[in-house]
């Protein structure tokens, strides 16, 4: 029995969060799961290098540790972000010696497996062992969890599986369009119709328009949405979470995975959740809760687009290089769900537009989907390789809603929810090698969105299922996790993404050449062209100097169909504990005032859809960047678009962020 996970999170709109429980380790056939971790010290480490870990001499200790690699017994020294680990062989026994970014205390841990011992600086951290640890309760993570448990039932095997989710509840951080292709769900849970999945509005009408300022021109619709459904993905994720729990998956909403755990062979052995109740100044508050280590034979990263741990893992193991992948490219989607007049509502009606209000060099478009109960999902997607630093995606969305073909639908309605999230657009060219020692990356963290379809849910789910099957093989059949990669390349995901590969890069030549080329690819060549176009520059490199552009003047919101940011933020139910260290880090705090402001006219104050970044005058009248981290929607645009890649998005304490329920 393990004492554990207890947290209470208060937000302005909700008091929630989940876990205040005692987690019991039920019997398992996995000996790893029973590997007992205690905090007792079993020192066989050489006395000459044995520090007094209970003392407070950290600075001495860590300068000492930096010296240790020179010791002949230490065979490996790895720097990881703010931390490092040392692998040593002492008396014929392997040991790990490590600290991470949340270092606060020290202790030894007892043997994990194979004679390996870990030494961790986080003495108060509990450890729970699982067979499979999954980060992120989105479509990918939950599909993996469900598939694993199904395989357990089919083969009468008991594997322990957990999913850790930073949202206060499953679905709270999920935002999507969403026109849903049920292919993967049919494979995963064929009885979903009878089991009450919130997938019940079939696409009834599918239109595609090219917009100019005052007109809409109908184009042949390339989306082929027959058999698809208009859904709320946050609701589907919520339902899938319940299905996973029914099958025996432990889900921990309200906990952010902030750190990767490695063993001495540089293999991932799980994650640690972020400490809770740490004040801005780093001190512990009354409600302090130490992070928890969730250790697994296999760790699956399902954090969605631009996952913070996934990006670290990709860099650490050079997975892009191994997969011969190009960089990832992204777009930012800004969305509202409206309740409109009954007379205007057509359940299942789907509309996509290209063109206005975006300029011809900026790739993007809008979506408008009629859900059930008079609800309409409306949004604008703006590719983040835009050049004009004065472009403001939030304001472009407000402008879009004023179009004469759109506004009448919304007039008289009310906005139920607002949110924003990035999605990846790199497709086939940008898929990294998704397997690393100890686990794999699944879903949008790896990047399986089919851009011409504007869909990534079905591919995210399928990738989770394939990774689960590979993980099951590792734990039961002695096969390797590489099977995931092999099966991925033989699956329909690969076939789809390969066919769609030239669509998005064609738009780097502008709107009209992009439309012409993609029509040729879609209708004539059908993906069989002998070439593969490359993506242009990474998104952070595409922003032009401000002097090359004229500032864009956006109209004031009318309060009827267009709104200011604070109003929208209120509708996103976003909240973070204010007194916590900012989760948005500036690698160099001088860059905003030295580069972003003078050279690019402060683009972060425009691309952030929550106005987290604001330049305000200091006491000397100098403009200084102020970061309102508590407003953050977790969209990750800043991590992607900052011209100098100076902003690092890390997870805040669990439970904070948006509170979506119909997105
Ligand atoms: C505006 C927009 C419109 C879209 N429209 C469509 C559409 O119409 N059809 C379609 O099929 N697809 C669409 N997509 C794409 C689709 O939403 C994604 O492909 C899909 O959500 C990917 O699923 P995922 O599980 O990989 O990631 P996500 O759905 O992003 O889920 C990731 C989960 O992991 C959690 N998480 C992340 N990091 C951590 C951490 N460190 N610790 C704990 N938890 C963590 C997040 O809170 C989240 O719950 C759209 C996307 C956007 C943004
Ligand atoms: S701070 Fe960054 S992640 Fe948060 S809402 Fe703004 S752009 Fe998105």
How would you describe what is shown here?
The chain is an alpha+beta fold. Among the domains are: 40-122, no CATH class; 550-649, Alpha-Beta Plaits, CATH 3.30.70.20. Helices cover 24% and strands 25% of the residues. The protein has 18 helices and 30 strands. Strands 8, 9, 14, 15, 16, 19, 25 and 26 form an 8-stranded mixed β-sheet that branches. The chain has a 7-stranded mixed β-sheet with strand order 12-11-21-22-23-20-24. Helix 3 (139-155) runs parallel beside helix 5 and helix 10 (457-477) crosses helix 11 (482-490). The radius of gyration is 25 Å and the shape is globular. The structure holds flavin-adenine dinucleotide and iron/sulfur cluster (SF4). Residues 584, 608-610, 612, 632-638, 649 line the site of iron/sulfur cluster.
Task: Please give a handful of descriptors for the protein shown.
single chain, 663 residues, alpha+beta, Alpha-Beta Plaits, 8-stranded mixed sheet, 7-stranded mixed sheet, 18 helices, 24% helix, globular, disordered N terminus, binds flavin-adenine dinucleotide, binds iron/sulfur cluster, FAD/NAD-bd_sf, FAD, ETF-QO, oxidoreductase
